[in-house]
TrEMBL record:
Pfam families: PAP2 (PF01569). Keywords: Membrane, Oxidoreductase, Peroxidase, Transmembrane, Transmembrane helix. It is a multi-pass membrane protein. This is Acid phosphatase/Vanadium-dependent haloperoxidase. GO terms for cellular component: membrane. One of its GO terms (molecular function) is phosphatidate phosphatase activity. It comes from Basidiobolus meristosporus CBS 931.73. Residues 102-245 form the Phosphatidic acid phosphatase type 2/haloperoxidase domain. Signal peptide: none annotated. Belongs to the PA-phosphatase related phosphoesterase family.
């Protein structure tokens, strides 16, 4: 068994620069989405009228979340990032795979953030604890209509505005975005759909999504979201994760689903290296452009590169 180091410096002249620049636009899109989120987050939400007798928004306001946003970021971004880096660098020995997994995860998270917060400020749905946040000056609705936010006496602008950002659930959408991406990554590395029926592969691959579901449930228990908010948030997160994953990895039914798509090498450089053009995933000729371990192991193993 021949082994190559994780990092090497025998790339053709201009290869690394070309490879980095080929993904520059992708990283710019991620940065634009991230900046856009911070700008959108400063916009006040739509002020929807409500009824003071509405029981669905009359729950008590809890000061602290069961899972804070900081803890959620660790669970749905930092941990998946570390796991994918360990797998790509120390099992697959492919920095290129590590880069694509990081880029895909960042794209999924920023896209989810942007979509979620645009919907939040546009819809302006009240949270289940909105009336407790509002602290209304009256307990009776107008005789011929609904109550406006003018009756609210809440002095904390953040608590007040945040009370009108129920739909969809940001915790849930982010959780399903990051952890679904991790599930897809694990499923690809394990060849979950290899028609061999290894149940453990399914459990390992689905486990992150179960964690995302529990985070969503905690938002309902904390009276931060209605069940519809959590459901739609989960759908947004799953869709963004799948979209981002498929930008850089083949579908899970592919025999090469454990590898990212071929590097974006322009035709002149590919011809100079005598590498055949491919429209799909990489083959043996691309292995010298990735730092990988060459092994004769079965193709369904995690350390496979063939």
């Amino acid at each position: 068994m021949a082994t190559k180091p994780i990092f090497k410096n025998d790339y053709p002249p201009g290869y690394l620069k070309t490879l980095v620049l080929s993904y520059f636009v992708d990283w710019v899109i991620v940065a634009v989405l991230a900046i856009g989120f911070f700008l959108v987050d400063k916009i006040p939400p739509f002020h929807r009228e409500f009824s003071l007798d509405n029981k669905t928004i009359s729950f008590p306001h809890k000061a602290n979340d069961t899972i804070s946003m900081g803890l959620a970021c660790v669970l749905v971004f930092v941990i998946p990032l570390i796991l994918m880096a360990l797998i790509s660098l120390f099992i697959r020995r492919s920095p290129y795979d590590c880069h694509n997994s990081l880029l895909g995860l960042c794209l999924a998270m920023t896209l989810t953030l942007m979509i979620t917060h645009v919907l939040k400020i546009t819809v302006g749905r009240q949270r289940p604890d909105f009336i407790a946040r509002c602290i209304p000056s009256t307990k009776v609705d107008p005789p011929l209509g609904l109550t406006s936010v003018d009756v609210c006496t809440q002095t904390d602008a953040f608590i007040f505005n945040d009370g009108m950002k129920s739909f969809p659930s940001g915790h849930t959408s982010l959780s399903f975005s990051g952890l679904t991406f991790l599930s897809l990554y694990l499923a690809g590395k394990l060849h979950m759909f290899d028609e061999r029926g290894h149940t453990y592969k399914s459990f390992v691959s689905v486990a992150p999504m179960i964690g995302a579901a529990l985070i969503g449930v905690s938002r309902i228990c904390d009276y931060r979201h209605h069940w519809q908010d959590v459901t739609v948030g989960a759908i947004i997160g799953i869709c963004c994760a799948y979209f981002s994953y498929r930008q850089y990895y083949p579908h899970l039914g592919s025999p090469r689903c454990h590898k990212p798509f071929s590097p974006r090498i322009p035709r002149p450089i590919a011809q100079k290296l005598d590498i055949p053009e491919r429209n799909g995933t990489d083959d043996n000729d691309w292995m010298r452009l990735e730092s990988v371990t060459v092994t004769d192991a079965h193709p369904t193993k995690l350390n496979v590169t063939e």
